[in-house]
Design goal:
Length: 477
Amino acid sequence: MRTRMIPTTLLVFCLTYTLLIPPYVIGEVRGVAPGIPDSTHRNVIIQLFNWPFVEIRRVLPELKERGYSHVHVSPPQLSNERVWQWWGRYQPIDFTLLKGPLGNELEFKQLNDAADQVGIQIIADVVFNHTVDLAELPEQDFVVMDAQNKQIIQEKFSQFGPQDFHARCPIQDSIISTVRQCWLSNNLADLKTEDPHVRQVAQTYLHKLVGFGVDGFRFDAAKHIEPEFFAAVLAPFPHNYAFGEIIESSANKFPDISSLDFYDFPLVAAMKQAFQFGGNLANLKEAAHHNQALPGPKAVTFVRNHDLDCGQAGDRGVDDSSFGVGWDHGIRSLNRTDVNLAYAFVLGREDGLPYVFADMPTLPLNEQDDRYDDPELVAGIRFHNLCLANPDGTNRRGEVWRIEMPNVIAWQRGTDRFIVINKAAEWFSINNLQTTLQNGQYLEVRNGWPMHVTTNGTIVEWKVPPRSAAMFVRVDN
């Protein structure tokens, strides 16, 4: 099953009137205006990053109400518990046990059962490229290296021996063999994922997760694993969704793996350029034709994930100027409006399976700027879901662009949905815009502002506020 997403930044005022519209009234779901129809289908992933399983279980009904279809949970296997920070979950110790700071096997099973009851699918993060960090070993002699500090000669893993690890070496991005066989940071003990025994351990672990009710997998560090690995370990799970992490800014650097979709990092890089000051939004229309976005059927489209969020915080994430929409590397601050506009683009487009990031619940509330219940995000998700056509989300309302400018873009979805994004600091006036939209009354999803489309598909007038996005659905029967 595929998925998609979008938010917005709207203080949208209505158009053909000269009076200011009174403050909007939020409907039953905060972020969605009264009169907006409910969506029959849902197709959006939420990453509840480093959330305990009991906390995820608690918010499942809210997630369903807000339009999410999948929850991406952090790695549940026994990991390096010496490291209490989030990256400790990405240092596997034992794949036979589901145990750690996020919860135990019973709590994980209860989460999956509760998700089934509300119709939400669970995607588990899996880490097969590497194990522990030599600088953070759970015990001093947990891994012992040879005199040259190149080969593991002794270790305390229950499922692996020294022969299951590559020799220690630094990664050189220009040499693919080092990308797949050397050690991340030259410190994370790298598994021989080409070895039949290592692949069998991985496949057995996936069987264990599926037995607990897991519906899909997110593969960490997929760039550093040979492509053949995924076909081998995923063969018994043809109905479980799977995607991987390859951090590259060009789509032509992604391998062809039929069993795996990927985070659309190229699109994130393109959005960073387009939404920043002086960038051209119109370039986003043909991004895939210029290797700046993955093909829609292979893309998990996103604006933020834990790599970018933690990189911005200087906390072992991706600190790379190619990525991070709204991220000012000079002063290390986040422009939330740019993030909201980028979410609007991701959720408003036809291509991709949308993915939303939520901060760790352990952060103080005033530091949680990525929230699953953000009203602008919820509005975008409703719009996205209303653009789905069939239960599986594969057939959607087509996308026809109507405005292509450096600061303003707009397109229709099918003949009864319309979205406009204005990144400029000035109002933008839509005047006598010709479309193939059905005539009638439309409502803006977030605020409920009306827009009328004439019998010949014309939007006579609508004023788009500065630094905002507006999404409309037809409400006439």
